[in-house]
Specification:
single chain; mainly alpha
Length: 324
């Protein structure tokens, strides 16, 4: 019996899945021997089914592998933690056997916690490994500073903590804001957050240094030296992040500005704090000790200005072409 293609197309999904009756299968087989279009459609259905099957199998394999590596990482982390316990127990026994107080034992313990934060935590944490590692490393490092400061009867804990925290933020905060969940939480404000936190920690560090050195002159000099550097850093960031121009223009402006700043910074800051200092002389054929600094500054200024102007010209050319 000859059937219409529309009827066969309704039967093809059942036929492809092999769940139709024998009579229907015989009718479809008979139709496919004469109809090329329905045969092509059946091939497409089987191809899609195979792709879906492969996709499901691939996801399943990836999940099994992920679970395997998580279990393996947990086992390795537990083994490393067990190894770390050996020196802790040895130090505790020796400390008690010699009749000494447990002061240097806590220094050893804090040091091992710092090492564990970089070796065990990344293996043991199933998610957000970077954030967990940075957080535990920072906390254990401050604990180590605190134990040593107490043991040595020092007063430098806040000074060291503030400077180290600023250094860690400069190095590790940019990759940290791109890790989940901070990436989703901050959205398009990741760069602004990094700059704001770095600026706050820098100011906190300078205040801590001022309190520690207890020098009235520091409170007078530090803002005048730091303020121009912060202004330059913020200007470069805002230009790169928010200016509506191409990359050549941004690079050219930043390169020229940094070259000019590096040349005039000492002169302007010294004038601001009340010290007379002249602009360095350019003596390209005199490289004695008293002329090296000035020559290097002039060469840096010329290189930055030439490179910056070339980039600016290139950027204006590209922008003009884009407009036309």
């Amino acid at each position: 019996m000859k059937l219409n293609c529309d009827v066969i197309k309704d039967l093809l999904p059942l036929y492809a899945d092999q769940i139709c009756s024998e009579e229907s299968r015989a009718l479809v087989d008979e139709h496919l021997t004469d109809c090329k279009d329905c045969s092509v459609l059946l091939g497409q259905m089987r191809s899609e089914e195979m792709e879906n099957s492969l996709e499901i199998e691939t996801v399943d394999v990836l999940h099994r592998q992920a679970d395997f590596f998580k279990r393996k990482s947990a086992v390795i982390g537990a083994a490393i933690a067990g190894v770390f316990m050996i020196p802790v127990l040895v130090c505790l026994i020796v400390n008690l056997a010699t009749g000494a107080a447990l002061d240097w034992f806590f220094i050893v313990l804090a040091s091992l916690l710092t090492a564990a934060s970089l070796s065990i935590v990344p293996l043991m944490m199933p998610d957000h490994k970077l954030l967990w590692t940075l957080g535990t490393f920072t906390a254990s490092l401050f604990l180590l500073f605190g134990v040593i400061c107490i043991y040595t009867h020092g007063t430098w804990f806040f000074l060291v903590s503030a400077t180290v925290l600023f250094g860690l933020a400069v190095c590790f905060l940019p990759p940290a804001v791109y890790a989940e969940p901070l990436r989703t939480l901050l959205g398009s404000y990741k760069g602004l957050t990094v700059m704001s936190v770095d600026t706050f920690l820098y100011v906190l560090m300078m205040i801590t240094i001022g309190v520690y050195v207890k020098s009235p002159g520091f409170a007078h000099l530090a803002p005048k030296i730091s303020f121009p550097c912060l202004i330059l850093a913020w200007f470069v960031f805002l230009l790169i992040r928010y200016a509506k121009c191409n990359g050549f223009l941004k690079a050219g402006i930043c390169t020229t500005l940094i070259g000019v700043y590096s040349f005039f910074a000492n002169y302007l800051i010294n004038r601001w704090i009340g010290k007379e200092r002249s602009i360095p002389a350019f003596r390209p054929f005199d490289w004695r000790v008293d002329a090296i600094d000035g020559n290097i500054r002039w060469f840096v200024l010329l290189c930055c200005c030439v490179t910056g102007i070339a980039l600016i010209i290139r950027g204006i050319t590209v922008q003009t072409k884009e407009k036309h």
